[in-house]
Amino acid sequence: MKKLAESLNPAERKVLKVLNNFSSFYDIMKATGLKDIEIARTLQWLQNKGIIKVKEEQKETVSLDENGQKYLEHGMPEKRFLESIEKASTIPEITRKSGLSNEEAAASLGALRSKNAIEIEKNKEITIKLTEHGKHLLKHPMPEENFLKENFPKELGTLNQEEKFVLEALRKRKRIVKVELSKSISAELTETGRKLLKEKIEDNLIEKLTPSLIKTAAWKGKKFRRFDVRINVPSIFAGRKQHYRRFLDEVRQKFVGLGFKEMAGPLVETDFWDMDALFMPQFHSARDIHQAYYIKEPKYGKLDENLVRKVKDSHENGFNTGSKGWRYNFDVKRTHRHMLRTQGTACSARMLASKDIKIPGKYFAISRCFRYDVVDATHFPEFNQTEGIIVEEGLNFRHLKSVLKMFAEEFAETDQIKITPGYFPFTEPSAELHAKHPELGWIELGGSGIFRPEVVKPLLGKEIPVLAWGIGIDRIAMFKLGIKDIRQLFSHNLEFLRNAKVV
After folding, report:
1. Based on the domain organization, do 417 and 360 belong to the same domain?
2. What is the mean pLDDT of residues 299-304?
3. pLDDT band at residue 290 using 50, 70 and 90 as cut-offs
4. 254 shares its domain with 399
5. Does residue 464 belong to any structural domain of this protein?
6. 208-217, pLDDT tens digit by residue?
7. Angle at 204 between CA 200 and CA 205, to 5 degrees
8. If you ran DSSP here, which 8-state letter would residue 13 be given?
9. Is the domain of 254 the same as that of 401?
10. Distances (CA, A) of 458 to 28, 261, 266, 354, 452
11. Which residues pair with 467 in a beta bridge?
12. Residue 459 and residue 307 in contact, taking contact as beta carbons nearer than 8 Å
């Protein structure tokens, strides 16, 4: 009990001392002088320590409304109306002398007539006179005045019959009182709490250690308050990056740390950059898996017609690469069609054709892509793809294997990898990267290969080895963040975002 008493903070000590006499929330607030939020927190702390039990009930409470607060300060309109009758007799004069509005004067007139406090005489004009009862009311407070001076809010069930009668009369008038359903909170001492009250509860405990307290040694001979580090406290949700956004930023930092330069491209692409420049034939079924969204307006985009001619030649006859191409008539109009980007490799195609490309060079992109799909836990119509290229003379498949191994170590945190044959229209040879996750087993990280000459020569202007790769970064993020539904990567749910794992 002694240790428990020494663990109480100032607010807890103040509240505990009044709990023998008061139990309701508002009575405790009046007795201690603490604010409502301070009382609420203190009761929670005391309950966590097993000192009290907090009970909550729904009850109707009475409180003063806007006009009630005004009349408490300046007096009820009917009292001011009565006081003005001695100086004036007609309704307009009384209204002016009392400073009441026409609406307040009318309400006062009705209230005073019902109390038999005034008489109305009709001669040439209507005049008001005080009755004997009215003179009595001038010298004594009215029931309404006494009611307004009560301590509010009050529970409706605690009112006596006279107070209820006054309340019903005031509720018929404009914004004087209001009755609302509210939560009633009360505190009851536990057996531990009753024992604790018998202990000596000290008020001069040191709450914090300050530099001056240490320098002056003023702490000597005094007691420090004990702190309970297990007690519940309000959660604090500090500002932070969205969990997936932060993960992508870390991926970006890793690539930059590995010596890669970031490249970018537009979300709205043309068939040219998204597929044609990558030597994907316009008639080929490989395009079906891309499930592209095409733009209605504007339907066609602008392109460098010289590049279009070179890519056209590559499709039709191989563009002097030793290949015979796909041997079909390339549709120039179709290649100008606008679409939402379906793959990040469009960024690689743009980089190969850019005047800013450097050889040797390493480039990467984190690209937002779109493909229509049935939305479920593992499929979404938009996704992020991390991909890139390495351009340098003398590169071969052994270099590609080394790069893939490095990616597995960086992103899947494992050195156990498998490289299996794959197929992509724009690479030859093509390979898929699998890595063994310590918990999830073998997972597919992405595809890779060496760009075909039919892709490189029309865009770059010469044949040179280009290692290309693409990683499904959304799936890796799900593993890293402990998410089982891909939709949660893009969630707007505030409760989920506050508690989401951040790596």
Report:
1. yes
2. 95
3. low
4. yes
5. yes
6. 888 988 889 8
7. 90
8. H
9. yes
10. 83, 23, 21, 12, 11
11. 390, 450
12. yes
Residue 286 lies in a domain: no
pLDDT at 462: 92
According to the 3-state scheme, what is the secondary structure of 340-404?
ECCCCHHHHHHHHHCCCCCCCEEEEEEEEEECCCCCCCCCCCEEEEEEEEEECCCCCHHHHHHHH
Residue 258 shares a structural domain with residue 406: yes
- Residues 370, 341: contact at Cβ < 8 Å? yes
At 310-347, the pLDDT tens digits run 999 999 999 999 999 999 999 999 999 999 999 899 99
What whole-number distance in Å separates Cα of residue 375 and Cα of residue 249?
Answer: 26
What pTM did the predictor assign? 0.57
Residue 386, both tokens: 């991390």
- Domain hosting residue 23, numbered range: 2-51+190-212
- In b/e form, how buried is each residue of 171-204, taking b as 16+ CB within 10 angstroms? eebeebbbeeeeebbbbebeeebeebbeeebeee
How far, in Å, CA of 261 to CA of 276, rounded? 25
Q: Are residues 382 and 429 in the same domain?
A: yes
Instruction: Tell me the C-alpha distance between 324 and 315, whole Å.
Output: 8
Mean pLDDT of all residues in the chain?
88
Domain membership of residue 176 (yes or no) is no
Any idea what the CATH number is for the domain that residue 457 is in?
3.30.930.10
Identify the bridge partners of residue 420 per DSSP, sorted by sequence position.
Answer: 432
Tokens of 4: 């428990």
* Same domain for 452 and 399: yes
Q: What is the pLDDT of residues 414-446, one digit of tens each?
A: 778 899 999 888 999 999 988 876 666 777 888
261 in the same domain as 199: no
Residue 92 placed within a domain: no
How do residues 229-259 score in pLDDT, each as one tens digit?
776 677 788 888 888 999 999 999 999 998 9
d(CA 261, CA 391): 12
| Tally of domains in the chain | 2
The reply to whether 257 and 406 lie within a common domain is: yes
Contact 369, 382 (CB under 8 A): yes
